[in-house]
Write a structure and sequence with these properties.
The protein is α+β, with helices and mostly antiparallel strands and 168 residues long. 30% of the residues lie in helices and 30% in strands. It contains four helices and seven strands; from the N terminus they run E-H-H-E-E-E-H-E-H-E-E. It has a seven-stranded mixed beta sheet with strand order 1-2-3-4-5-7-6. Helix 1 packs across helix 2 and helix 3 crosses helix 4. The termini are far apart.
Amino acid sequence: MTATQADLRIDRPSVADGAALWRIAKESRTLDLNSSYSYLLWCRDFAGTSAVARAEDGEPVGFVTGYVRPEDPHTLLVWQVAVDAAYRGRGLAAALLDGLTARLAAERPVTAVETTITPGNTASERLFASFAERHGADVTREVLFDAGQFPDGPHDPEVLYRIGPLAG
């Protein structure tokens, strides 16, 4: 039997979820994998601006990490979105993103979402384009970091997607 989106619970991550988030990111094979330590810190320091989807047993099966930009407190920057392979294709990434932005909008005046996407990451492009459409927002794109700015070898450019203003 496969789990449906209705069988999942979306809430804030805790430090105990850090290892699972690291595993999900690693197994995605598309995200830049951060250190396991960074996922533990993220779950401690940015739990309020992140979300995790849990299976019935409480185990994380998807997540979105983000933070409110210090220089622009009306903007949520989405750092990573990932869903365990067994749970993909059910709209979970969209539900996580919608749930997180709704929670933040109820707490503070978030009017825009930013994320970066490498060229060719069609799944992320579709996720954020559909998010913008659902929220009645425009999308602008510009290269934030070009390939030559990365000191650790070949890296695709990171294209900044700015989505906003979000419909209230």
